[in-house]
Amino acid sequence: MNRFRCALPVCLITALSAVTYAPLAFGAETVIRARPAPGVVVRMLVDDLPEPALVVLLLPGGDGRINIRNNGTLNRLDSDFLVRSRQHFIRHNIATAVIDAPVVQRKRIELGITHRRSKAHAQEIGAAIEMLRARFRKPVWVVGTSRGTISAANVATSLARNGPDGIVLTSSFAMATKQAERLVAPPAVSGIQATFDFSKINLPALVVHHREDGCGTAPLAGAQLIHNAMINAIRKKIFVVSGGPADAGACQGRSHHGFLGIEKQTIDAIAGWMLEKDTR
Description:
The chain is an alpha/beta fold. Helix content is 25%, strand content 23%.
C-alpha cells in the first residue's frame, strides 16, 4: 500500500526541428536540436503542448544516452524513471523535454560523472533551456534523477545566464557539500562527495527520495544534506516517498530508486509543488 503523509522535518509521501509523432495520449512529440558549441549537438524529445503552464527539461540517469532517433523513438534508458513517466507531467499541463547525451563530432558520448560536473555540460543544458524558453515562452525547470541530478545541480549552481527557473532532484546521487554536513546531525555521511555549493541556488528547489532506496550511491541521508544546504533557495522542500515494489537491481530504474509503482503519485506531488498547488 502506498503511503503519503506528513511529518517534520520532511514531508512523507508514501536550429529546430524534425519529425512529429504522438506516442502519448496527451500531445505530439517533436525532435529538436540545440547546438551549444561548434561540433556539438544536443537532441531533445519535446511534447508540444499548445499553452503549457511551464516546461520541464528531464535529465535521465545512467550514462544519459537515450538515443533519440529522427522519428522520435528511443532505444535506450526506457526504464529510467523520468523517461518512462513523463506523461504524468503532461496531465498537469506541463510540457516535457527529455534530453539525450550530446553528440560531439558526430559521435554520441556517454555522460560520465566527470562530464556531468563540467562547465561544458552546464553550457549544453543551458543551450537546451534557452531553446525551450524561446519555443514556449514559459518558465523552464530542470528535473534530474539519479546521475541526472549531478547535471541538474551543475547547471543550477553554475549558470547565471540561461539557467533554469527551478530545480527538482529525484533519487539524488551522493554529492552533498561540506557545508551541508555542518547543518545536520549526524554531521557526516560516508561516501558523500563535496561536489557543488548548493548555497548558490536561489531558485525554487525540490528534493524527492524514496525512503527504501537501496542504491548505495543515493542514500536518503545525502538527499537530506542537499536539501539542508540549499540555504538561499527561494522556496524549498523535501518529499520522502514510501511504497511500491522493488523489482530490479537497487540502482536500476524499475526499483525503489526509480519510484516503481508510485510514479503517478510521485509526479503528481512534484507537479503540485512546482505549480504551487501543494498544501502540505
